Recover the amino acids of this structure.
């Protein structure tokens, strides 16, 4: 009897250990999602009272899409541009950290993370100063008469840095690039340098050895980094608010405006759901394309 | 003598040299890893570089592979100077210590890597890969990932992946180091079989003297960056050129000796207070020189009375007797206080026991005179660097 008892206890132990996490997820994820979904399908009978009636109001979704289509498109294209820039900047940096930095590795890794000690908001405001009309960036361009060139290549718009889509993308890139560097670094650092030697021994020039060995083995890191930069970039509204103009507003600002200024909770909730759905589908397609089974495994 | 002759492989029979190491040195900072190495390796030969860790054998191999450039001297591959040619342009391939199989490719793609990088036609690649998977007897595992294979199987895939390119020489860097003893012994025979089958020159780096003796046509024994001796296993065992080689390969009784006289190839020396003649002396020592006298423990006889007057003998007292199965290990004390070890067949009776006074003897061809003093022998365990089991990734 005693043995049977302890066996049963042993079987329950994993659930016991799981329960705090499960409870947390239920309380702070499932319940809010459920509430949000109900609000998204509600109507607001009185414009001045915060009361909602659950009425299966599917039109909230179609209204949100038609009203905020430009912002949705903008959010995803800005986030995509920022993510591509993050890969372009982050991959070589992570590669250097993993294979070439030697004894400076930990110092350089710390430097990647140092910006986190300063508030996200303050760092973005600092960019306003740097990119502004009186700021050092524009001063440099004007001193060296580069504005026509930067206008031509699309870095500036009619001689201005600030309040342009470029500035928003730059802000997103700046703020999220560490989230690209770190996972790529981790996946590169795991690669046995002996594999690169083996590739070279088997008639691959260094560049080909990189393409056939290092790159495929680091793709899980690129995948993780992409998720960590693309999703928060797409939902971000600080950069669009502080570095952009009215024509660069992204979906995050619209949701916050609907919630906080218009108190239009049903449409805000519907828009949030649409945003989540697009991201989820996008991530699954991306995982399929990249052939990463990290997600299913 | 006839056994010895039969065991001598036909190496020096004018086969074409594949690799020439021409007075090569490699210096890292103020550390000389390889010190004026100079030898050639012939076509189809199984050549081993043997020595304790840090002796320069791996550095020499890496220079042949192209991962290191010599500080001075030249390396020639079939007569062409390749000293500064990068690894991907050299027709040699390496089996790495930890195999370095590509974890993101299956076995077939791993083996096909080299031929594909060389841009061979598709059907030629397929033909070669299938052939080599057959040679290493892993055809059924073509679709597996390396992480799904055992250590011995990974080892054979690494071998196939290198051999599939039909290199001018195959370089093996302690390839059996990560395997357990049983597997290592069967892989030794397997390697020998494969080498005979493909006929490619194997250059094998190991710290394990037994492994080198078992497999090699010729062995280069290295110590502190220098090549101490090159020869067939039999030569190196029976006629070590230096005290280090004598002590590193097998076990050896090493006594200090003083040369008394030379007469042809026979040298008279004084050992443990006795005058002894050494036949076939190659030490080059002159009268008055100090040297080291060597007899292998299994060439010693231990008897109450000397049974063969043609043998050289010293008085000895048995201090220890250890039964080791096929042999009995005697520890002896000689009149001058020095010690000796003898391994004699474990007969059932008539064996001297500790405390007995005995005659320790050896025949003419069993002794060797070496230049240098006995303390040049490797004293501590000349063991390998500890090698972790191969890392499997998923």
């Amino acid at each position: 009897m005693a043995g049977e008892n302890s066996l049963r206890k042993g079987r329950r132990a994993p659930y016991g250990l799981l329960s705090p996490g499960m409870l947390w997820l239920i309380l702070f994820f499932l319940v809010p999602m459920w509430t949000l979904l109900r609000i998204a399908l509600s109507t607001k009978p009185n414009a001045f009272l915060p009361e909602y009636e659950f009425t299966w109001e599917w039109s909230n979704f179609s209204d949100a899409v038609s009203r905020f289509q430009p912002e949705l498109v903008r959010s995803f294209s800005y986030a995509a541009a920022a993510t591509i820039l993050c890969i372009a900047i982050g991959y070589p940096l992570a590669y250097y950290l993993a294979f070439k930095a030697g004894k400076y590795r930990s110092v350089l890794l710390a430097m990647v993370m140092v910006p986190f000690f300063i508030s996200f908001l303050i760092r973005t405001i600092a960019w306003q100063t740097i990119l502004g009309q009186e700021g050092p960036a524009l001063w440099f361009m004007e001193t060296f008469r580069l504005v026509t060139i930067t206008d031509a290549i699309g870095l500036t718009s009619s001689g201005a840095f600030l309040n342009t889509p470029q500035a928003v993308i730059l802000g997103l890139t700046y703020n999220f690039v560490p989230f690209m560097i770190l996972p790529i670094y981790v996946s590169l650092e795991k690669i046995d340098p002996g594999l690169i030697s083996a590739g070279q021994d088997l008639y691959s020039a260094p560049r080909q050895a990189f393409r056939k060995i290092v790159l495929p083995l680091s793709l899980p890191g690129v995948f993780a980094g992409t998720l960590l930069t693309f999703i928060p970039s797409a939902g971000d509204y600080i950069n669009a608010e502080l570095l952009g103009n009215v024509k660069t507003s992204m979906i995050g600002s619209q949701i916050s405006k609907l919630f906080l200024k218009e108190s239009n909770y049903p449409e805000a909730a519907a828009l949030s759901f649409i945003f989540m759905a697009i991201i989820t589908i996008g991530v699954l397609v991306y995982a399929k394309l990249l052939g990463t089974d990290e997600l299913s495994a | 003598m006839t056994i010895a002759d039969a065991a001598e492989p036909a190496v020096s029979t004018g086969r074409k040299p594949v690799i020439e190491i021409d007075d090569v040195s490699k210096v890292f900072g103020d550390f000389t890893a390889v010190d004026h190495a100079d030898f050639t390796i012939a076509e189809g030969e199984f050549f081993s570089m043997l020595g304790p860790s840090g002796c320069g054998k791996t550095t020499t191999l890496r220079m042949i592979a192209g991962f290191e450039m010599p500080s001075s001297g030249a390396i020639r591959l079939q007569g062409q100077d390749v000293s500064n040619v990068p690894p991907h342009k050299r027709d040699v391939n390496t089996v790495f210590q930890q195999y370095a199989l590509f974890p993101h490719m299956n076995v077939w793609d791993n083996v096909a890597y080299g031929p594909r990088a060389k841009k061979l036609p598709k059907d030629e690649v397929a033909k070669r890969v299938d052939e080599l998977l057959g040679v290493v007897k892993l055809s059924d595992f073509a679709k597996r990932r390396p992480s799904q294979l055992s250590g011995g199987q990974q080892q054979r895939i690494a071998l196939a992946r290198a051999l599939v390119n039909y290199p001018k020489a195959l370089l093996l860097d302690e390839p059996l180091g990560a395997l357990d003893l049983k597997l290592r012994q069967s892989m030794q025979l397997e390697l020998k079989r494969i080498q005979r089958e493909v006929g490619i020159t194997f250059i094998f780096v190991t710290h394990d003297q037994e492994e080198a003796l078992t497999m090699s046509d010729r062995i280069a024994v290295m110590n502190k960056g220098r090549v101490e001796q090159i020869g067939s296993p039999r030569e190196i065992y029976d006629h070590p050129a230096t005290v280090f080689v004598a002590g590193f390969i097998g076990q050896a009784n090493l006594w200090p000796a003083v040369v008394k006289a030379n007469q042809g190839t026979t040298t008279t020396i004084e050992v443990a207070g006795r005058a002894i003649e050494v036949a076939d002396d190659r030490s080059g020592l002159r009268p008055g020189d100090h040297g080291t006298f060597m007899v292998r423990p299994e060439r010693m006889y231990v008897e109450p009375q000397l049974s063969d007057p043609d043998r050289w003998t010293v008085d000895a007292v048995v201090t220890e007797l250890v039964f080791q199965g096929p042999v009995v290990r005697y520890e002896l004390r000689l009149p001058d206080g020095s010690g000796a070890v003898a391994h004699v067949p474990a007969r059932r009776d008539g064996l001297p026991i500790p405390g007995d006074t005995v005659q320790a003897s050896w025949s003419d061809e069993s002794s060797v005179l070496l230049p240098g003093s006995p303390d040049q022998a490797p004293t501590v365990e000349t063991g390998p660097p500890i090698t972790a089991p191969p890392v499997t990734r998923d």
Summary: The mean pLDDT of chain A is 88.
